Known about the structure:
Layout: H1 2-16, H2 33-48, E1 60-61, E2 70-72, E3 80-82, E4 86-94, E5 99-105, E6 110-117, E7 120-127, E8 140-142
Antiparallel strand pairs: 1-2, 2-3, 3-8, 4-5, 5-6, 6-7
Helix pairs in contact: 1-2
Amino acid sequence: xxxxxxxxxxxxxxxxxxxxxxxxxxxxxxxxxxxxxxxxxxxxxxxxxxxxxxxxxxxxxxxxxxxxxxxxxxxxxxxxxxxxxxxxxxxxxxxxxxxxxxxxxxxxxxxxxxxxxxxxxxxxxxxxxxxxxxxxxxxxxxxxx
Length: 145
């Protein structure tokens, strides 16, 4: 029950809070204004929930295309792969306090932000409307035991 409440709180924070911050693509170009707003909301939500800071993680490979999945591990033969409910090419965005890759969700009115952490990765679901589903699956594959 507490877990569900915390997830609901994070999702509300993702959709409600807005504090303008500069969001740029990894090549320094300005990104789409909708992604700027989304990046601001996600960064603000992470700040409000005291989430651990994003860190560089040499064990994690964020894909350019969401359908490839996130690969965690040095050796592909023993790596763990996490599929994300997203599609298309991700956009790397950076705010004053956070950096993540945002993909378009496979479900209506959703986006998925993926961020490296010290121990793996964090996936954040952004819901922008009432047509979004109530549940999301992140299947794992590869060398999972």
